[in-house]
UniProtKB/TrEMBL annotation, chains A, B, C, D:
Gene3D superfamilies: Aspartate Aminotransferase, domain 1, Type I PLP-dependent aspartate aminotransferase-like (Major domain)
SUPFAM superfamilies the record matches: PLP-dependent transferases (SSF53383)
Residue stretches making up the Aromatic amino acid beta-eliminating lyase/threonine aldolase domain: 3-292
Family: Belongs to the threonine aldolase family.
Enzyme Commission number: 4.1.2.48
Keyword presence, Lyase: yes
Reactions catalysed, as given in the entry: L-threonine = acetaldehyde + glycine; L-allo-threonine = acetaldehyde + glycine
Source organism per UniProt: Agrobacterium cavarae
Protein's UniProt name: L-threonine aldolase
Length: 351, 351, 351, 351
């Protein structure tokens, strides 16, 4: 009953198998092998256009280098006030983008409210020398709150970014989960709606270490090879990342794994909704659930071996958390088993 | 006949097997799992003292974060003029150490000459506000030229560093190869001779991605957890690195693999020395050979599928390279097969 | 009728005279002259203890280098949400402190509320590797809203900083104005209340370019000479700054000038309070006034040559600004003449 | 007999007078006053084209911000191996240009030899991801060795820079001295010969603090306002710098002052050349002289109150420095008096 995080899971057997196969041969290093190049091309197919792809080691690296590539002096990046880039990356995006500023934008359920974003950007008209200049809007899909921007919401955000003359970045640490939940295509969820740069995460969804930065317009990425090397993110045996992506895309494995994780989350949600001991903190749509659980159930579950995190109560939460309750986060993954979900539900139902 | 680089090799089966085993289970992320901690303890045993260990993704990251951890304003790090940190990492060590300066120190065969190092440091006495202040000496073991500092040479370097009040870092991308060649212990080759920080590389020696920064005095590393996260080098499934190190140390696999690579280099050396078509550019002692080969042999070898790099002729090379010759680099690895060495020698002998 | 800012004023005749005298002689450069050292000693007397003093060219430099000197990886500095460091310095404090994060702390009238500061810091307990680590609290005295922390309020802030193990910095761009308004001593307003580092501004109060960073404990400043040079803030003819400070402290000129500026602000305040066309937006105590003025008066004053800035209405302002009103800022200085104040009041009274 | 440095001099009376006049009035801050703008226009006239001008506080700032404005990831700037930017600015140019690398280029008499520059740049062809990419060539005029690039030599350097697709910067800390010595025009010595960015120094030539960055093509400077503010170099009362430049250009004062300094250097040179106790270390052409003096004379001069610096003997110096000799540097300025020169010569002649 591991619901602590999707990065507590291991790696999917198909990923492993592909890695094994790759490990027995020699190939050119530093991203120049045929496999590296073949997988970069595979991204073109996935995104239905020529994109520029750069493998990096962590999601934080993907986000940080994306920001680095659009850095301006006095630059300001706009993100949701609870975004991973501002709250959970120890300042890495600031560090790599030459000391830019991350400006939090409020909005319910982990999503920037367009009018708040607009107002935040409007504080920095051209020539605001003492205040700085907008350089990027970054959104998270799926969000840290387990919610998803629908396609029109993405368009609304991107229109504001375009209006301000800055690119739009999407932190897709859980890109596959969002994609599956929306039942749409990578192209539709990104460049067709105005996304310029994507942090494409695969580690949480069955790989052991596979992240990529995807530029919808390769011209934007001309300096990225230098940025990546200068940032210590050019791996010598990078083809082992390429190999993971190879298996990841094979027969739509990635979508299948994300669909499983989402289904497990739905099963949890349905079970908990039907229970007397729990209620959803807010509607979630991907593989993260935020649940107000009675403390007795939480204790019982933990005693039975379940792992999950307590979560700080947002100050704008609508229904208050009672004294005998606590807010918890439950995350499912490709490796979550139905039986674990059912055990957890049984304990909560019983307590 | 792949002699291009040791990072063209894949991964050793024992490493793979251990990774497979790890992939089927859940475990805590970001370096907090029991396995991570157990492997960190294994380093204590390897180094015969309590050390602080941090896994990172690339050798450049290990070097760069080592420098970052000792950064001073106006800081200057001293390295050999051909060192990887100054010549091959696109400025990453400068970047991560808050814009320090890398000062090249000359010396034959890839090794800093102690008197040159001393003179270089002496240019920056305390209070050299306009020039900057020494912050680190960094040496490479084995060097980029395939040579090795013997233990007394390490002591000579460390005494100068100590005298200047700065720590000594060792870039050990090929640590195991040097260790094996010197037939000494990790403790003897590092802290017993005054090394304070070590970039401990395993990727080139049979892992697919396993690098560590080792602090001989854990107190020096107090800020490293933040530096690593801020530098985008804290991997979520870092236990997959730990697993590689687990297999790497098991039954001294790492020493065995390095010994094999060195033996293959020796076999190449002996064969080429006996040949009329080649001579050693300078004496090398690990798994890298620099050879002056007649162009006909070089072409024949490449036509037969051999891969290796041409190398720029150092300006201080003693015996000139003739018109019909070229300087090449040959690198062996854990995966180099004796038959490939012999094929290569046969071609060179024949041409 | 220049009320736009105190940095629109020129320089006081006594400052000029001293500069003239200095200009005719030779002296050692880069802060090593006897005058430089004598003035540094004068600061000891002013602060009643041995302090370390560093002249720099701008208030932004003073603040930024102060932050640089306490930078930690993943470091977080806490400031009021409207502080100059976060809102008006184009990210310089972030830039010079190696990409730290500035965390806004709310509080009425430009002052951090201690409980808000405490809560903000408490979000980052030791070991918050993903979030970062507190490195500094910085307060502004007088504040950007023209208010002043009284001595007990300074103590309350410093106790929280001490409790978190971080130093306390004071942005004293208008230090003299605050000091005079509180009728206290520099020692009392700083180190006796727990301030560790001070940006000591003199430019706004009669100098043309004289700013200093003052460390109450010189040991904290050991790297500052390198930081200052590396930051391009070591002036060759720095003795011309020293000369300004010489005249500034002579016969308490600085206190006299600040008292004058404050008196002019009081005169404005009293006059406007008595008027039907204006009211104070909030109580201010130094040389900055924030006034809600009827638009007719504002226009009449501008038509008559008055200069002042419109000010954005804070979202937490208690009495709303009416449709026929606007919020303006009025700043007085050493150079403000009583007759200008009276002319302005007359116009506002008449309109 | 102050020959230590031209920045030991004070300020010229005409500069002072202009500052006094400026000090009595109010004007807009942060470079927006009419005077600031008028002086910026004056630079257009001086350079015979529309240029972009930015006042900063130090020569190090001018150089560093120039580099910052052309920074690339993994960027490399090429300079003479003895240049101020690499040897005397505590790494500031590296720091402000986002951790670029400064690559020393050798050449006699403080001047980069074109073929050496070409060879240095050629080491970094496009796509040298592991090594970095050229971003700038920077030359010093007059050089640190007191020599001057003639116009054809400037063209030779600029052609190489253009060929590599990188801009050419000139560190003109002693621009006026070089200009006067060459008897040419600012336009001719800069953009007509391919210089793109100029650090225009006036502090050493009679101002007390006046430095400017001049972009020959204003489009290159679009981000400079943000860079300058972010670098803490936007002075509030910047019009006091403008005022200095106003007087500096008035009636060609600047050329007159530089001509005087150069004449004093020539007088020193002629006198010392005729003496038995001294010889020129190498030919110099501006206001810096490098002289091999017998130790007795040096002591006698110092005993008589002369101040000057001993200088390290360059390793490629042609005539060795004898045991009874020492290499010294003598610098003249606008404030050097003929009588001091003659006293110095008398002492040397006598000893």
């Amino acid at each position: 009953m591991i619901f602590a995080s999707d990065n507590w899971a291991g790696a999917h057997p198909a990923i492993n198998e592909r890695l094994m196969k790759e490990s027995t041969r020699f190939a050119a290093a530093y991203g120049t092998s045929e496999l590296d190049q073949a997988i970069e091309k595979k991204f073109n197919k996935v995104f239905e256009r020529e994109v520029a792809v750069f493998f990096v080691g962590t999601g934080t690296a993907a986000n940080s280098l994306a920001l680095a590539s659009v850095a301006r002096p006095g630059g300001i990046a706009f993100c949701h006030s609870e975004a991973h880039v501002i709250e959970d990356e120890c300042g890495a995006p600031i560090y790599f983008s030459n000391a830019s500023r991350l400006m939090p934008v409020a909005g319910p359920n982990g999503k920037m409210l367009p009018k708040n974003l607009k107002a935040a950007i409007d504080r920095f008209p051209p020539g605001s020398i003492h205040q700085g200049q907008p350089m990027l809007v970054t959104m998270t899909q799926a969000t840290e709150q387990g919610t998803i921007y629908d396609l029109d919401e993405i368009s609304a955000i991107s229109e504001i970014a375009k209006g301000a003359g800055v690119p739009l970045h999407m932190d897709g640490a859980r890109f596959a989960n969002a994609l599956t939940a929306l039942d749409t295509t990578p192209a539709e969820m990104t460049w067709k709606r105005g996304v310029d740069i994507l942090s494409f995460g695969a580690t949480k969804n069955g790989c052991w270490c596979a992240e990529a930065i995807v530029y919808m317009d390769p011209k934007m990425a001309e300096d990225l090879p230098f940025i990546r090397k200068r940032s210590a993110q050019l791996f010598s045996k990078t083809r082992f990342m390429a190999a993971q992506f190879d298996a990841y895309f094979q027969n739509d494995l990635w979508l299948e794994l994300a669909a499983h994780a989402n289904a497990m989350a739905n099963r949890l949600r349905d079970g908990l909704s039907a229970s007397n001991s729990a209620r959803l903190a807010w509607p979630t749509q991907s593989n993260e659930l935020f649940v107000v659980l009675d403390k007795q159930s939480a204790k019982a579950a933990r005693d039975a071996g379940a792992s999950f995190y307590d979560w700080p109560v947002p100050h704008d939460m609508q229904q208050p958390v009672g004294e005998n309750e606590q807010l918890i986060r439950l995350v499912t993954s490709f490796a979550t088993e139905e039986s674990d979900v059912d055990s957890f539900l049984r304990i909560c139902g019983r307590a």
